[in-house]
Design brief:
246 residues, 9 helices, alpha/beta
Length: 246
Amino acid sequence: MSWPRGWPIASRPHSPADAAMRILIVLTSQAVMGETLRPTGLWIEEFAAPYFVLRDAGAEITLASPKGGAVPTDPTGDAWTPVPSSVARFRSDPAAQAALAETIPLARIDATGFDAIFYPGGLGPMWDLVENTRSIALIEQAFSRKIPIAFICHGQAALTAARMPDGRPLVAGRTLTAFSRVEDEAAGLATLAPFILEDRLRALGADYRCGPPHAPFVVRDGPLITGQNPASSQMLGEALLALLKA
């Protein structure tokens, strides 16, 4: 798939006759954990489950990442057993696989034509989406427009540098969830990630909530929807779709 140079993606406005939901999914391009060179990337279930929920509902989905092109996937997530049904479906779906291999560079994205934005996790966003200025701008624009925006697991790292117009952290006072400190420690990630996401969100003033480790848990605060962990992927996709249809 090729895109004309300089053409802003999905910048056209809605019209009454053009009612398909337009969803932007922002993915990581980070393939290693910082200087450790340990492989990481997208946790595939966190993408696949919401992707199919939205696609099956007729949404037009655009995939973007900082570098564009193929998105690296976390080998631990790829090898997870039992294989989640959404991941099994992804592995037998050439169109979904092609979409993940041909993401658009974030710098080419114009968010004004989208109805919702979704950030899957994996540990990759902890490195390449925390301070990505284009991603931060997309998030701040989404909140300004009050369109649904969803994050899951470590995808919430992309929220940590976003700010309100008055300079306050965007997450301050907002109720949300993310991968918990307990889950990070149990997975051996606490010493590998650049920071503990739960701790960072709390320090920024978020009203952080979580459920039991590895159990589905989703929180909605206005247009913001967050899921705690991979087990929350299906529930998060359904919550995002419900908000879009509300």
